[in-house]
UniProtKB/TrEMBL annotation:
Name used for this protein in its record: Probable dual-specificity RNA methyltransferase RlmN
EC numbers on record: 2.1.1.192
NCBIfam families to which the protein is assigned, alphabetical: rRNA_mod_RlmN
Keywords: 4Fe-4S, Cytoplasm, Disulfide bond, Iron, Iron-sulfur, Metal-binding, Methyltransferase, rRNA processing, S-adenosyl-L-methionine, Transferase, tRNA processing
UniProt keyword Acetylation, yes or no: no
Function as written in the Swiss-Prot or TrEMBL entry: Specifically methylates position 2 of adenine 2503 in 23S rRNA and position 2 of adenine 37 in tRNAs.
Length: 412
């Protein structure tokens, strides 16, 4: 019989970075990019502005302020930016006016479908050629859009394809919102398959997850303006805040800031390891904000908003899927109280060049069982879109994407 502690008996794969080399800073640590590289800014769009600023801009363009309201209706309710649809606006100068308020922001480059049309991945080109993706998914009774908040990502997590590519730039609020508007337009045109006869839910995006490219809390102000527009019932998309999930790698000060906003979005923390020893390697930003600090910030989010927090945990074979880690995670969550959190394990999705794989099913089940035994509600995430590289952590512009994008003219 062995007397060794369980930790030393199990196989422990370390997050070494086979197949690619992680970008390093001058001190040899994994590079973290918080600041957006300087690039030409996208044109200012109505969705970047507050309702008051929109009225000002309309006046600058030579029309009376009330035209802003009409434009809001076209864009946020009918999901159009085509002047031809806007016959309630004066015909003379209409094209220039609409173009000035709603400049084109996203050019569709590619669209990939799977799950018999229930899941669609869009590849968009931004005004400066930067590429981003969004993923639209129909579920019974709801339609979820996974949006990008940055072109690329500066957080450098070795198991995530987006992180490996580095940060190109922050997206503007309107570039974020436009992903939703374009998805709604496609749904209204019947482009999303799979609607069941007995499904009477509205045919538009009902849920948004900030789980596409980028670290939303590293682009805080623009993401928050986008969320305000998404939830504004009179001047925006009128969605419910609880249907919007902001997922973060764990920028503790920004989590605290988010707790103090008046918009109770659903909050998700990508933890992936309950011990700093492993998390330091798996999530480079853990060098700044440690496991206990981000868990405290997450708990404080619950205290402020009374919204149950999600902990995301990618299950990577022999790396972070050990029974003792499930126990430690359960203990760390319970130390901070009961009923405030649930855990969402996600079997790792493969990324190019990585040798890591998802945990075995029996290991996944054991991980869930141990958390549940400690009273933590736990649901394995059903990931969608693996076949089209549209699942969590798989969003990155491939060489093929770049080639198609290069020959796709920008919308003007
Ligand atoms: N930057 C944000 C949101 C982007 S990713 C964040 O880190 O939370 C959304 C989720 O997918 C995160 O929990 C992320 O850690 C997870 N993820 C990344 N790569 C993955 C992979 N290869 N397999 C499964 N999940 C992955």
């Amino acid at each position: 019989m062995t007397t060794e502690p369980e930790q030393t008996r199990v196989r422990q794969v370390r997050p070494k970075t086979e197949g690619w080399s992680q970008k390093k800073d001058d001190a040899g640590r994994p590079l973290l990019q918080f600041a957006s590289p300087k690039r030409g800014k996208p044109p200012v769009h109505m969705a970047d502005l507050t309702p008051e600023q929109r009225v000002e801009k309309v006046k600058e363009l030579g029309l009376p302020g009330f035209r802003a309201k009409q434009l809001e209706k076209h864009y946020f309710t009918h999901w159009t930016h085509d002047p031809a649809d806007m016959t309630d606006l004066p015909a003379e100068g209409r094209d220039e006016f609409v173009h000035g308020m709603l400049p084109p922001l996203l050019t569709e480059v590619r669209r990939l479908e799977t799950d018999r049309g229930d899941t669609i991945k869009f590849l968009w080109k931004l005004h400066d050629g930067a590429l981003v993706e969004s993923v639209l998914m129909r579920y019974p009774g709801r339609i979820t859009l996974c949006v990008s908040s940055q072109a690329g990502c500066g957080m450098n997590c070795p198991f995530c394809a987006t992180g490996q590519a580095g940060l190109t730039r922050n997206m503007s609020s309107a570039e974020i919102v436009e992903q939703v508007v374009r998805a709604n337009r496609l749904i209204a045109d019947g482009g999303l398959g799979g609607k069941k006869k007995d499904d009477h839910s509205a045919e538009r995006v009902s849920n948004i997850v900030f789980m596409g490219m980028g670290e939303p809390l590293a682009n805080y102000a623009r993401v928050m303006q986008a969320v305000r527009v998404m939830t504004d019932k009179t001047h925006g998309l009128g969605m419910s805040a609880r249907g919007i999930t902001v997922s973060t790698v764990g920028l503790a000060p920004a989590i605290t800031k988010l707790s103090n906003e008046d918009i109770p979005v659903t909050f998700a923390l990508s933890l992936h390891a309950p011990d700093d020893e492993l998390r330091d390697e798996l999530i480079p930003v853990n060098s700044r904000w440690k496991v206990d600090e981000v868990l405290d910030a997450a708990r404080a989010y619950f205290d402020k908003t009374k919204r149950r927090v999600s902990i995301e945990y990618a299950l990577i074979k022999d790396m972070n899927d050990h029974g003792w880690r499930a126990d430690l995670l359960g203990d760390k969550l319970n130390e901070r109280g009961r009923g405030w959190v649930h855990v969402n394990p996600i079997p790792l999705n493969p990324t190019p060049g990585s040798i890591w794989t998802a945990s075995e099913v029996s290991v996944q089940n054991e991980f869930v069982r141990r958390l549940e035994a400690k009273g933590i509600p736990t649901t394995l995430r059903d990931t969608r879109g693996k076949e089209i590289d549209g699942a969590c952590g798989q969003l990155v512009a491939t060489e093929e994407d770049e080639a198609v994008a290069a020959v796709t003219p920008l919308e003007v």
